[in-house]
Design brief:
globular; binds flavin-adenine dinucleotide; four-stranded antiparallel beta sheet
Length: 299
């Protein structure tokens, strides 16, 4: 690892100023929040920019609040701030639990949810979780209104997002759970970043599963919904879940399309995806039945 290359740091106070800076300096400029990905790339010699645009001072990218029944998280908020936030812990406890398992304390204190999604590393907890939650992001460039993008259309490939030039991710919006609904996130980690992430949202309707959304990530190149598994589990009676869940695990492994890497072979990852899908679905059922509480967040 080498020292950071020289650059000029800019601290805009608004999206307008940030867009203007990014446009003025073009390919010589890049935005950042915590810098946990960007400065690592600099240190490794994989990227070099003469101008870095620090987004932390932009008010529009800050704040965590319930608005019109949804949770709105400013893109520059850190994992740690989300994990500890009173409203998140009380009303979106599965989100707090997921954030508490991201990396280590240093990564959670420095890294932002927006940076995680924009960087689009395939090994992402939030990208998987937000897919199951039907989350959307808001993006805006100076002088325009915000546009809403479903998370599945935002993280579009490995290290690839849907932002246009000069556009910033401003917030992440997560709907509230409907009555009788629950979501559970499960992950498996071998090295620093997750090897497998699975999130399951479902609702109990008269003893059967409804609104099943099963998302899987980190195993393949991008997080995806497992449509075949969701269809199979929909309308399944809670008391007869064993066989359908086993089959849903296989279908989720198909959807994940794992790639071989330092975390293991395709077959190994398929096995892990199957196990975690079953665990996530069972945890969501237990949560929806009021049998399982998310662990209390630590201060
Ligand atoms: C050791 C380690 C362990 C980790 N473990 C996990 C884990 O278990 N699970 C997990 O999900 N993640 C994990 N991560 C990833 C971590 O969550 C991200 O590194 C972090 O959230 C990135 O946020 P940042 O603000 O530091 O991003 P930055 O480095 O500041 O930015 C990353 C990229 O996003 C762009 N960007 C950032 N914010 C915006 C914005 N608002 N608008 C437009 N572009 C923007 C930047 O231009 C840059 O290209 C780990 C990382 C490390 C280093």
């Amino acid at each position: 690892m080498t020292a950071l290359p020289p650059f000029e740091r800019h601290r805009p106070a608004s999206v307008e100023e940030a867009t203007e800076l990014l446009e003025r300096h073009g390919e010589d400029a890049v935005a950042y929040v915590g810098g946990s990905e960007l400065f690592l790339l600099f240190k490794l010699g994989f990227a070099e920019y003469a101008h870095v645009v620090d987004l932390k001072g932009i008010e529009e990218l800050r704040g965590i609040e319930r608005r019109d029944g949804e949770l709105r998280i400013g893109a520059a908020e850190t994992h740690r701030a989300i994990e500890r936030h009173r409203t998140v812990r009380a009303e979106w406890p599965a989100l707090a639990a997921m954030e508490r398992e991201v990396g280590n304390l240093r990564v959670r204190t420095q890294g932002s949810i927006g940076g995680n999604l924009c960087f689009a590393d395939p090994h992402s907890d939030p990208a998987t979780f937000l897919l199951a939650m039907d989350g959307v992001v808001e993006a805006r460039r100076g002088g325009t209104d915000a546009r809403r993008i479903p998370i599945g259309e935002f993280v579009i490939g490995p290290f690839e997002n849907a932002l246009a030039d000069g556009e910033l991710l401003t917030s992440v919006v997560i709907p509230a759970l409907a009555p009788g609904a629950a979501v559970a996130h499960r992950k498996f980690v071998l090295h620093e970043r997750p090897a497998i992430t699975v999130s399951c949202h479902l609702r109990l309707d008269d003893g059967a599963l409804a609104d099943v959304r099963l998302a899987v990530g980190s195993a393949g190149v991008v997080a995806v919904r497992a449509a075949g598994a969701e269809e199979l589990l929909g309308d399944t009676a809670v008391n007869g879940l064993d066989e359908p869940l086993e089959r849903a695990g296989e279908l989720t492994a198909d959807a994940a399309d794992p790639v071989e890497d330092a975390n293991g072979s395709v077959a190994y990852k398929r096995h892990l995806v199957g196990v975690l899908s079953v665990r996530a679905a069972r945890a969501a059922v237990a949560e929806a039945r009021g049998e399982e509480n998310q662990p209390e967040a630590e201060d």
